[in-house]
Specification:
Layout: H1 3-22, H2 37-43, H3 50-54, H4 56-59, H5 61-68, E1 75-79, H6 85-94, E2 99-104, H7 120-126, E3 134-138, E4 150-156, H8 159-162, H9 170-180, E5 181-192, H10 211-220, E6 224-229, E7 254-260
Parallel strand pairs: 1-2, 1-4, 2-3, 4-5
Antiparallel strand pairs: 5-7, 6-7
Length: 266
């Protein structure tokens, strides 16, 4: 073997070692497929609040749902739906043969009597006949469970806060999500990106998390990493500001990670 061949062999050996060390978390970034007709129609739904529609340019809901693979007839669990930005869209995509189970936490023990419950806004959506396939599930995040097996569990801009809730073990929560899904079901995590290597350091201060930490926790629960999307990537975000800072709010660098429960494909 001449010198050039030896260098080539060494390079190939190193590349193989690096690939092996990256393991299951090394799935590539993926391009989102074109949004389906049901997704396009759901985003165009005139019943959506104007405030939601004005956020679409930054949040790219059609492309994000296309990446998740949600389709008519699916049963979807949404963790902490907040004001229901995605709840309404998911409801219209899955249609009359599907369901959206919007999981909200109960009021905290020390909540002021006049403070609206966390589930109040999504309960108003579920009461609207236009979104009759939405079912609100009120349960602590220590006991994540849904009324039926799911095709997709979705959480948007919330995963970092799982680390901030007293009593919540995120690995246990991810395992409960795993158990709630059908074989082949998808776990979609969208959140604000923190500085690389910061792990969960900034979850309670900047409300960000390192995507590698999310991967590590989801893989520990038994998921397979399918891939990520850069749809919401913003290379100009220095990852040093709180996500509510007016200079960055609505324009943070965000990651989208897609995990699958092993088993038959959806």
């Amino acid at each position: 073997m001449n010198h050039r061949d030896k260098l080539l062999a060494a390079s190939l050996f190193t590349a193989c070692c690096l690939a092996g060390s990256m393991g299951a978390s090394a799935a590539p970034m993926q391009a989102a497929p074109a949004p389906s007709a049901p997704i396009v129609a759901a985003v165009a739904d005139t019943a959506r609040p104007d405030a939601d529609r004005q956020r679409d340019a930054n949040r790219k809901p059609a492309e994000t749902l296309a990446f998740a693979g949600v389709k008519p007839g699916d049963s979807v669990g949404e963790l902490l739906p907040g004001g229901g930005y995605f709840t309404r869209i998911l409801s219209k995509v899955v249609g009359s043969k599907g369901h959206v189970y919007a999981l909200s936490a109960p009021p905290s023990a020390d909540a002021a009597p006049d403070k609206p419950a966390p589930a109040a806004r999504v309960q108003a959506i579920a009461a609207d006949p236009a979104y009759s396939n939405v079912v609100v599930v009120v349960t602590p995040l220590t006991k994540v469970a849904f009324p039926a097996p799911l095709d997709l569990v979705w959480t948007s801009q919330n995963y970092h806060d799982f680390h901030n809730i007293p009593g919540v073990d995120v690995t246990v929560l991810d395992k409960q999500v795993f158990d709630a899904l059908k074989p082949g079901g998808i776990y979609l995590v969208l959140d604000h990106a923190a500085e690389a290597g910061s792990a969960d350091r900034d979850t309670s201060t900047l409300h960000r998390i390192d995507p590698e930490t999310v991967k590590k926790e989801a893989l520990a629960a038994g998921f397979v990493f399918v891939g990520g999307s850069e749809l919401l990537h913003n290379g100009d975000d220095p990852h040093t500001a709180k996500v509510f800072d007016p200079l960055i709010r609505g324009k943070t660098d965000q990651f989208i990670l897609k995990f699958r429960k092993p088993g038959n494909a959806r």
